[in-house]
Write a structure and sequence with these properties.
single chain, elongated, disordered N terminus, 245 residues, 10 helices, two-stranded antiparallel sheet
Length: 245
């Protein structure tokens, strides 16, 4: 059971818990001699704690973050209020993120879980091996400027190469980089729809239609333009391709 706790730490990115499972030490509290398994109640507590972190992990260190931000920007730009609904946007973001991250998760499984099950690696070694594919993925999209920011904040020594970067540095740097990328794409998506809003507002004001909100007139034109341009295909296709550069 303690091996399962350690492996969950591999997937959830909790190095401290993985080492704890290997050394019977959790959060600095000695739970027994190395090699002794944790008590069943404590194992349940650790597992439940890791499971509570799972939504944050999915939303933060997968493509879900960028995709969900862009789709929400797109909905605001279209001016359709709650269409598509939040459930639809989050569901689409989740399945698209799963499609992109699946090879990384499979690689983590083969390098971390399988050797641990075969007893060829210890829990801490399995964590290190399983974290390598995740590090490679995060490094690909984390900006150097953001990595340097968190290295300075944490006062961590400069790594010799990108593979020496710790997850505690890479994860927040990746999140910050993805927020920037999502907002950049969202700003670009806003531009054509903003032009339509400005044109419609200018026309309605010039002909004296003061009582009718311009948004009510521009919304059908924006939706029509989006449909004629096959917007969903273009937006989703461009988003997906941005993760395969």
């Amino acid at each position: 059971m303690s091996a399962r706790v350690a492996l969950l730490a591999v997937f959830f990115g909790a190095p401290g818990l993985a080492v704890a499972a290997a050394s019977s030490n959790v959060l600095g509290i000695d739970l027994g001699k190395p090699g002794e398994s944790l008590s069943a109640p404590l194992q349940i507590v650790v597992l439940l704690t890791l499971l509570t972190l799972l939504p944050a992990v999915i939303m933060s260190i997968t493509p879900f973050l960028r995709i969900s931000i862009v789709l929400h920007f797109l909905r605001q730009a279209l001016g359709t209020q709650t269409t598509p609904s939040n459930q639809v946007l989050l569901g689409m973001s989740l399945f698209l993120a799963m499609l992109i991250i699946q090879p990384v998760a499979a690689d983590m499984y083969h390098k971390g879980w399988e050797p641990l099950q075969a007893n060829t690696l210890t829990a801490s070694q399995a964590f290190e091996a399983g974290a390598e594919p995740l590090k490679t993925f995060l490094v690909k999209f984390a900006r150097q400027k953001d990595v340097k920011l968190f290295l300075d904040i944490s006062h961590a020594p400069a790594p010799r190469n990108v593979q020496d970067l710790e997850l505690r540095i890479l994860i927040p740097a990746y999140i910050l980089s993805e927020l920037k990328a999502g907002f950049q794409i969202g700003a670009v998506l806003f531009m054509p729809f903003l032009i339509i809003d400005l044109v419609v507002a200018s026309v309605t004001l010039s002909i004296g239609m003061m009582q009718l909100p311009p948004v009510m007139i521009s919304a059908p034109f924006k939706i029509l333009l989006f449909v004629l341009a096959d917007g969903w295909n273009l937006v989703i296709g461009s988003l997906m391709k941005s993760f395969y550069v």
